[in-house]
């Protein structure tokens, strides 16, 4: 058994050896064939590469040659251009040299002429000095003769002459100043009247004096009881929610709402009308309706501001400023609706700016926003002009607009003529008949202050404020005030009124000087 295994092992090993020898022999033959084939292929590749290299070399040589020819041509062109420039410069230099030679000849000729003139001037100067000395001698002799004849020294004569000349100069100067001022006033007044009248004629705005009450119509007097509610709970809830006083009296089929704040009064009016139409009137419903109406009016304020800007053709205004412009609808100044007043001022300012050649858009913008400070909450203290100045500056308005808003009541200095136009337009709009309502006490006080101010000047005997304070007549003492002083006095009084008083429109100052001579025949 072991012998059989040994034999099998020997046979297996012999078979493996024979197989290895046979494989090695076969591979050796095949390898030789592959090497020969590879050599042939490599030889072909080398030959093809050499051909391709020669071809590429020829192409590159051609490209280099073309590029060299191109560069040479460019170089030749550049050289020719520079040569041409050099030729031009040479010609210019030659021309300049010729001109310089001509100028040199001219200067030389002028020098000769100047020397001759200097000699002539020197001769004339010597003659003048000689004549001047002779004149001084003659004047001295003449002065001596005059002193002997008049009995005055030269200093006394000079003093008298100077006093006469000064007196005459003052008189002539006063007359000249009066003529210049009268002419300037006439021309300025004529031009200003033309511009202002044209602006007023082209601007027609309805005026309505605002009141502090609103009347709500009801169907019958039974509704009054429902508005009041049991033990007055409805009316108390309504007044608490709106901040408006509700007056239920004997007025037939009407309920009166009273409040200074127009926005609150409008909220109360709309809310009460809706409650009456709905029929459900109780505290919870009242609060719900009032809150809803307030939201609607806030949206209406924004739309009103946008519509106003569209009406005036303005754009680029910050959203917060648009909201404040809309609030003007529910504000008033001396009973005049603030939004109508601001729109009118915007139109007037724009028209006057167009006549004077200024930017009409900036002018209208400044006119519209000049009273925007009045829409700020009453908790913020300060003049409305300065509040508006801070508000417009905060939201990056144009500096001219900001200055016009802050200076239209002269709280700050005006920096542009548009600010003066806004001030004038504001006065025009407020001075229209029926535009504003003025309390009687302040009206009487203004007239008294006007008369007292005019009477404070020396030489004034009596003062009378007439035409609702639009004119003040000043009667002067004729022995203390002559005609020239009367003219100056009217100017000074008008200037002081302008500096110290606030008033709508303008005030005419008329100085009256009357001389009466009385004699009796016996």
What would the keywords be for this entry?
single chain, 522 residues, mainly alpha, 3-stranded antiparallel sheet, 3-stranded mixed sheet, 8 strands, flat
What is the general shape? flat
SSE pattern = HHEHHEEHHHEEHHHHHHEEHE
End-to-end Cα distance: 201 Å
Q: How many helices does DSSP assign?
A: 14
- Mean of the pLDDT scores? 79
| Low-pLDDT sequence parts | 206-210
| Helix proportion range | over 70%
Structural class assignment: mainly alpha
Work out the strand percent. 5-15%
As a whole number of angstroms, the C-alpha radius of gyration is 53 Å
Beta-strand segment tally: 8
Query: Widest sheet: strand order?
Result: 1-3-2
For the sheet with most strands, the description reads: 3 strands, antiparallel
Fold and architecture overview:
The chain has 522 residues and is mainly alpha-helical. The chain contains 14 helices and eight strands. The chain has helices at residues 2-150, 154-202, 222-228, 233-242, 262-278, 283-312, 319-327, 338-356, 360-369, 384-394, 399-407, 417-431, 440-455, 483-500, and strands at residues 213-217, 245-247, 254-258, 332-333, 336-337, 460-466, 471-476, 508-513. The strands form three sheets. Strands 1-3-2 form a three-stranded antiparallel beta sheet, with helices on one face. A three-stranded mixed beta sheet has the order 6-7-8, covered by helices on one side. It has a two-stranded antiparallel sheet with strand order 4-5. Helix 2 packs across helix 8 (338-356). It starts with a helix and ends in a 9-residue tail after the last strand.
